[in-house]
Write a structure and sequence with these properties.
Blueprint (H helix, E strand, L loop, with lengths): L1 H8 L5 H26 L2 H17 L10 H8 L1
Helix pairs in contact: 2-3
């Protein structure tokens, strides 16, 4: 998925926001993948779902608050 990270970062203009998104990506990618596998019961579909979710987050990243917050974790886990 690191190549996907580079794609997501192209959607974000400010360097500080790119660094923040990268922190978010590495912090929550495994959690999101585990939840997606549990729901979808298919690893490939889960990977696609997580990539799509990160794409949506990157497009709207200005709306995301603190990376380490419970609200952000819960938002990404749902």
């Amino acid at each position: 998925m690191p190549n996907m990270l580079q794609l997501f970062l192209t959607l974000i203009e400010e360097e500080t926001e790119k660094e923040r998104f990268e922190r978010l990506y590495y912090r929550y990618q495994d959690l999101m993948y585990c939840i997606a596998v549990e729901i979808l019961r298919d690893e490939h579909l889960a990977e696609d779902a997580v990539q799509e979710a990160f794409f949506c987050v990157a497009r709207n990243f200005r709306k995301v608050g603190k990376v380490e917050s419970v609200q952000t974790r819960n938002f990404l886990a749902l």
